[in-house]
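Final paragraph of the annual report: two paired records, presented back to back.
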Amino acid sequence: MKTSIVSTALVLILLLGLASCSTKDVKVANLQVELKKQPIGLDVLQPRLSWQIASSLPNVQQDAYQIMVAESISDLEKESNLKWNSGKIESSLSVLIPYEGESLESTKDYFWKVKVFTNKGESDWANSRWAMAYLSEHDWKAQWIGIDSINSGGANIDQDQQLGWGAMTQKTRLSARYMRKEFDLEGGKPKRARLYIAGLGMYECYINGKKVGQDIFAPTATDYLKRVNYNVFDVSDLLQSNKKNTIAVVLGNGRYFTMRKEGVAHYGFPKLLMQLEVEDSKQQLTRIVSDQSWKMSLDGPIIANNEFDGEEYNANMEFEGWHNSGFDDSQWLIPHLVDAPEGKLQAQNNPNIMTMEELKPLSIKAHEDGSYILDMGQNMVGWLAVNLKGVKDKPIKMRFAELLKDDGTLYTANLRSANVTDIYTPSKDGLFSWQPTFTYHGFRFVEISGLDYLPDLASFTGKVNYDQMPTIGQFECSDATLNQIYKNASWGIKGNYRSMPTDCPQRDERMGWLGDRAAGCLGESFMFDNTLLYEKWMDDIEDAQLENGALPAVAPNYWKVYMDDVTWPSAYIHIANMLYEQRGDKQGIVRHYASMKRWLDFIQTNYMHDYIISKDGFGDWCMPPESMELIHSKDPARITSGAILSTSFFYRILILMSKFAVIADQAADSEIFLSLAANVKKAYNDRFFDKETAAYDNNTVTANIISLMQGLVPETYETKVFDNLVAKTEGEFKSHVSVGLIGIQFLMRGLSAYGREDLALRIATNRTYPSWGYMIENGATTIWELWNGNTADPEMNSANHVMLLGDLMTWYYEDLAGISTDKINVGFKKFTLKPVFPQGLSQVNASFESPYGTIKSAWKKDASSLSWEVNVPSNSSASIHIPAQSIAAITEKGNKIGLDERITTIDFVDGSAILTLNSGSYFFIVK
């Protein structure tokens, strides 16, 4: 039954509201260019501008905006010599507005301001800025420098040989490269100084002894045959006028110099390209470039660095004062001019990695062998900073692991060939402070040897390192298991952000496996502002695409894995859709549309027969096996057919591509995709669906849930298929997980979508095998790679993987908190608030920083009432579904609900009041 209330006085209310407010009540905030605040170093010719509206007033909606851009602050203030004046644009959009002014120029600064016109009045102007990078390769005057061996000749990397401090054996070893240059800077204080730098594989840069920026592992890793990132910094405050200045760079190996002689991509030896441009008050330009006027040493204190194996540091080899002027570098080498990497040089758009958090240890215990075991209390990713007492020339070793054996020693069997050991050799007796520079570890426990005393906990700090991004989501509820799972998931997700979303952070892998993020990227998007990371990763995926259209399973393709399946590469499509729907960002779709289409053509041409795709590479990866020591099930009844997986995913991709075609201005393709999808659906059901049993193929839960949730089940059979998979879950699997990486992408949302949120909650809160709670019961503080990670073959039992999260984090936000974006007015311009309110859960408190501002959904229920606190940000609106016996049973801040400028429509449908909410804060109570 449906009832509706329509307001005839709404216009009058809005007019009265407009007349009563002032412009100070509406402000523009959080100005961004290419989703960054005041970025330095854009090589985008048409940058996109965004802002939010901050107001304490209810029902604030933008009607229009005006943007101005100039080359100086004074011109912007005078509104003269403008590069762009948009004029008053009638639009409610405030996210990713493309610049449409005069052509932008290399290295120039641009200043911009925006004002908004709302239904509550105009805002004041809000100002910001950005700076361009190089827009032409001819802007570079610097040369690539380095040394490709210990001597002045070239190096043959196919032979075992000494390479500085190291060797090209299977576990490669190579010392860091130290480079420096002194230069004079005449005139007064620099008006502007910009540093443009690409140090491969990683660099740290110093000017006059001070580190440039807080970044680590810069620049972000790519396939260096396709693209090479450089970073841009404003270093005006680090330079000294009328004095000698020194710029110094240390290069680590990163992903450029291979970590393994065989099996991992190798691009060459570390190398540097650097250009410093200094402009004085008279606009005279001084340019310092990397060339053979620099000096270089391979004999510094970092004698080996390797992401798999760790870092070795010998303090006896330190160069005291090497990054300051006056250091004697007469015995250093002259660097060679070396070949540039093959990839296109580009300004990096995504932020670098940095230390985002610090963690203090929980305990330290002495072991009978004389070592000490440090427990950080949390499985983390990063490194250990220490303040210890050492003995001259006696190495102190720090070995890392996620787990302990029963005897209290490190469990390292799951690390494969990774040595994961940092070594520091003191140059004198006494105190020292140290942390590595070019390695990282996934660990909770550290074995420390080489000390002759028990250090206190204050001597150690865990540095948690991942890509710079804000945490934008918060979730807490009345169930302790759900809260711990969320915490474990958060630690696992951010720990696997390493300029690409990796599978694991600890063993000799750490690769960007696509399959792990096909659904996970959506849940992550509620928790972290990972937009720029995923935009970058989409570039990595296309870079790894073969000429025939095949997509990789790993990107960047440091491991060259091409399985020609559908499920893993589908992440490419799903990430683009996530960025569009969650962030309102269509760039991923438009930029990569042709690449996506080539992949679909490749699959269709090579592997589709009678509209069925049988080719599959990984199956329903890591579904719970029938025996606890197994990694993969061997029971045919548990194994979902590859043709089911590939064909169902291909159907869903065709539906998405029909939408993408319209967005990418290729509307003619849309009908082609839909026509093919219809044929695929018919063939799929003809071959795999048993109408009598309402089951797909061999009736696995995965086969049924992915068919249902991807829109393949004939309409009249949806309930029967759902009932079938529920019966199997509750009966054969005793209300536990029975799916692997593929099925788990749909399970939680599927159960809730068809009315069994109670079963979804039961699965999520189980503490027995197989479940996320079982991991917690066995000491997990992140998410395991396997449901049975504590008993399976150590060859594949990472304790920090996120692939088995599937759609769980999405379920937390979209089902438990009830927050989901509108599929047309994307990016949470409009959104829905519709929790499932499962029995057994009495409270949820969640918030999410959307592109338009903070969305909050915090509800609490007992036997007699439901209270629900909601926030709708300015310039957005929400449709809220409130379960109630009638509209009269609902109050908002103590008043009966009715139409006003905040609540513009009220319907009552099937036991729920459906209200349209304009921006503002609300507190509903339902008796």
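The closing record of the year follows.
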Amino acid sequence: MVLPARPVDAEGLLPLALSRPLDAFAKASRLLEQCPDGRAASIAHQARAIVLRDAGRSREAIAELRMSLRFARASGDPGRVIDAQATLGLTLGLAGRTAAGLAALDEAVRASKGVLAGRVLLRRASLLRELGRYDQALGDLRQAIALLRRAGDTVWEARAYCHRFSILAMLGQAARADRDLAAAARLFADAGQELESAMAVHNRADVALQAGDLPAALGFLDDASRRYEALAVAVPNLPIDRCAVLLAAGLAPEAMAVADAATRNPGYATKKAELLFAAARAALAAGEPDIAAERAAAARDLFRAQRRPWWRVRASFVLLRSRYEAGERTGRLRAQASRIADQLDELGAEEAPTAHLIAGRLAGALGRLADADRHLARAARFRHRGPTFGRPAGWLAHALRAEARGATAAALAACRRGLAAAEEHQQTLGATELRAHATAYGTELAAIAQRHAVRRGDARMLLLWTERWRAGALAVPPVRPPDDRELAADLAALRDVARRLEAAHAEGGATARLEQDRLRLEESVRSRTRRAAAAGASPGPRRFTGVGEILDGLDGHRLVELVALDDTLYAVTVVGRRVRAHQVGPIRTAVREVELARFTLRRFAYGRPPAAGMSNLDDVARRLQEALLGPAAAVLDGGPVVVVPPGRLHAVPWSMLPALRGAAVRVAPSAATWLHARRAVPPRGRRVVLVGGPGLAGTAAEVAKIAQGYPDAEVLADGTATADRTLAALDGAWTAHVAAHGVFRAGNPLFSSLRLDDGPLTVYDLGRLRRAPFRLVLSSCDSGVGAPVGADELLGMVSALVPLGTVNLLASVVPVNDAATTPLMMAFHEQLRAGAGFAEALCAAQASGVDDPVAAATALSFVALGR
């Protein structure tokens, strides 16, 4: 027996279309199959149209709405006609037919009154908002909210609050926007509107972004994405907003990938323009001005055709900025920059401060000092307003303005305040990756002061400003609270997938599905980690107080601090209490010689040394020293040295340099960080952990031999070195030694890993430690290599371990020879047990294998980081 289909309630279809769209579409289709009356048919077609429109299928939606309007007129219900016409007007406008859409909405407004007028006004406001006509939209919403509240129409009142929220947030009125959003969320929850409740969560990301809370913004976007996915709804604003947050965090390549993927999806004509605009901004930030110009021009043309001047001017600015970043410095570009900056200011657009900054710089470069001062003054207004991530730009403009007037003291004061603002923003970010990228304006502010120091020949001033930024940017809390169970589960699943992938590659099996799983899990790990806020994290190094602090704390060590400024490398040396600055040479030469030295060490490690043998190694070392130290090498006298390199020169085999041979060399990210490490208190216990990973013939022997010197050590090897057991053992250890195959991933440095028995232990895993080992030896390939980003920062093993309490770290900067590593490590630990520090122990161990080229090259491949 076939039961008759349950009749569909037509009146519930429209709310359902914005709550559970797929259900609404199915029910509307079923109702139409039942040959309903004209009113019910009109509602069904309108509900189907809303679902189609929100899925980006505008043409089909418009066809459905024309059917809805035809049935509404046939029904003789004027209210039904007005409602269908209002939805048609909004849909036409969103499809790019703005004149026709506004005409239909205007006609619907004139014909309506009461609660229906409130609903129609809301839809017209929605289109006006998309067109950038914010004052008119706010006027419509003010009337709509009053009418809807008076009628008790809570769902539509909530929608009106949401629309007003988005405009207020765009205009920077965060407090008012947040109040509207809270009211909307409460009303949607009471009404059971699932989709619109998800949209309210999505909108909270805008509030968090305006407040500069990027981890919270990413969290809200992830939550909204899950809700949309559960409802099978595609929302084009989601990738647009994610792109904006990623750009604010400095993650330009990822923002570019998100925007590019979104532009390839079919969608609204209006959203196509916005997606192109987002893609252009991302390409510009990623250092691709030509791509940015192409996308910005396409977006501008679409916005012009859609009569959206607010968006058109913003796209024109991205196009102008792409030309500026490509090196154009013409009078024509200056005039355009001046005009666009003023337009953005009048429109209240978020790009206004950056536009004034560029206009001011162009005017100054072309000698138009009055224009430069006017634009820089306008940009400088934003040093006290707006999100925290934007304030350093205001201070940069203030510094440039003072510098143009010759007011050096005022320029340096602005640099100091700007660096403090940049550090304040960094401290709001819990994830290492976000903090490392959020440094662009801080680097530029420090460079202004560094240039003053170079022009004056003031070595102390150069050291002061270099350390002021490096020390502040690096004084950061740990990566992630250690008790995130979902993150731990994702990392465990990722290890399992990586292990199965390795097996599949070895056996020639299928890998496509496993690769998809790996990418999905890596994205989940990144997402969870980025949502971490810095609140509650343990403090980093105390604030740097001055050069005197460094001189007092060196305690017999020599300091070599390298500074990369305007494509030139400088070395600041401190020997005794004398501070000197030395111009070394082009940075590109130093980078080239470092790569050559690392290549040479790799050849030795793999048993393929050049025919000249050690003499070739000596020649490479001399060139490396000339490129890195130049005249500074002459002031070093064989005593212990602390080297502070910029991020681009971190992977240097320092012991190769003739001036540093036989010296105890310590490498640190900043002098202040090194001083902080020297003051660190070791754990009360003297617990030693030795870990040997699989797959390398020498690791088991290495761990076994080292264990003979530590009878009470906890040894994990031969199947017991799993990730969970290793992390538990490492947590809070005094000394740890990990001998395992290391993999550095330049494209995803935080997924660099050490191979353990159950799969790779990544940097993200290490970031979950409550306290990293006080002293750690990473006897593995490339364990000291990171990806340089931001203000001389790195992403890699070191970036995870140092903030978590590791004060001594031995690591390699190239792949090493396993057989030659074992005797080096045994000699190193022998020195440690005798009371030597890491640098002294490494120096002594390096001296023991000088006659064997492979052993010598292996020894030179390791560096001692920390105190």
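The radius of gyration is 31 Å. This concludes the annual technical report; the extension proposal builds directly on these records.
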